[in-house]
Specification:
The complex is a heterodimer of chains A (156) and B (45).
Chain A: H1 2-35, H2 40-50, E1 55-58, E2 76-77, H3 88-91, E3 100-103, H4 112-116, E4 122-124, H5 128-134
Parallel strand pairs in A: 1-2, 1-3, 3-4
Chain B: H1 3-43
The chains are: A alpha/beta (156), B mainly alpha (45).
Chain lengths: 156, 45
């Protein structure tokens, strides 16, 4: 009788304890990733593997001199990390709950940590757009246009 | 408690334990990378 009661309690306690430990480590992972910028080549590999699950935000302040000139393929413009300054079509697609990579000009501008904190899980691109260009990785240019519903899956 | 339920619970405990261990190991690797970055940042002017 006593064993019949103790066994489910022991399992419940173990499951609760492990779920708590997992939650703590998960939160720690988000914090660590926020502090650790992603290298351009690492981001390229990540995008090639799991493009659908990453949101890329280009926060360079002036669209004409930044995003429109050259940007990481698939990135959404969010000038100055201010949703009010984003083009309407892009603003509607920006989500705070998906894993995000924030792309600035050089990767070390002030205010970037505050920008990262707006998203549930966000990392910086190390060295920003200049490091991406210096690594000779693919770039797109021109103003943002939302993907066509007829378009198939693209590739980098 | 039936054997099936017991097996299911043990499997769940094991899965959670493995997930936790993997996450913890990944976090330790990230911490080492952060420490290495901080050290190289201090060395370079």
């Amino acid at each position: 009788m006593r064993r019949a009661l103790l066994e489910p309690l022991a399992f419940a306690a173990a499951l609760l304890l492990l779920a708590g430990l997992l939650a703590v480590e998960g939160r720690r992972r988000v914090e660590l990733e926020r502090r650790l910028p992603v290298e351009p080549k690492e981001l390229y590999r990540l995008l090639a593997r799991t493009q659908a699950s990453w949101q890329l935000l280009d926060v360079r302040p002036i669209l004409a001199e930044g995003y429109d000139d050259a940007h990481v393929p698939g990135a959404l413009p969010l000038p100055g990390c201010d949703p009010g300054a984003a083009p309407d079509a892009a603003r509607a697609r920006i989500l705070t709950s998906v894993p995000t990579v924030v792309i600035s000009a050089e990767g070390d501008e002030p205010g970037l940590q505050a920008c990262l904190a707006r998203f549930g899980s966000a990392r910086l691109l190390a060295g920003g757009m200049s490091a991406w260009s210096a690594a000779n990785l693919p770039e797109d240019s021109g103003a943002y246009s939302p993907p066509s519903a007829k378009a198939g899956g693209g590739c980098l | 408690m039936t054997t099936q339920v017991r097996v299911l619970l043990v499997a769940s405990v094991l899965a959670l334990a493995l997930g936790w261990a993997g996450l913890r190991r990944g976090n330790q690797a990230l911490e080492q990378r952060l420490a290495a970055q901080a050290a190289s940042g201090e060395r370079s002017p």
